[in-house]
Amino acid sequence: MAVSGVVLVLLFAGRFYYMSTMEISEMGNIGLGMCLLSAFFDSIPIPPLNGKDIWDWNKRASIVLLVATFALNLYWLMLM
């Protein structure tokens, strides 16, 4: 369930990325930033966040998800 929460936010980020490439660029950029930051912070393995449940379930999946969301955030910052 914890992984699906982070992946769902990343799917919303994909929708906002599509919006940012179309005519609704401001709303797309804001939504994309919110989704990517939310997914990144939610994948950090500290107890109140979903990242801790993912870490307890599978450490490799937690590291992959954390690195992937961090890389997506860096990519988004370079686009800005």
Walk me through what this model shows.
The protein has 80 residues and is mainly alpha-helical. The chain has one domain (2-79). Helix content is 84%, strand content 0%. It contains four helices and no strands. The protein has helices at residues 2-21, 25-42, 50-57, 59-79. Helix 2 runs antiparallel to helix 4 (59-79). The protein is elongated. It starts with a helix and ends with a helix.
Briefly summarize what is shown.
With 80 residues, the chain is mostly helical.
Rounded radius of gyration (Å):
13 Å
Give the averaged pLDDT, no decimals.
90
Strands, total number: 0
Helix content: over 70%
Distance between the termini: 32 Å
Total DSSP helices: 4
What is the global morphology? elongated
Structural category is mainly alpha
Counted up, domains total 1
Beta-strand residue percentage: under 5%
Instruction: Show unreliable segments.
Output: none
The largest β sheet comes out as: none
Order of SSEs, N→C?
Answer: HHHH
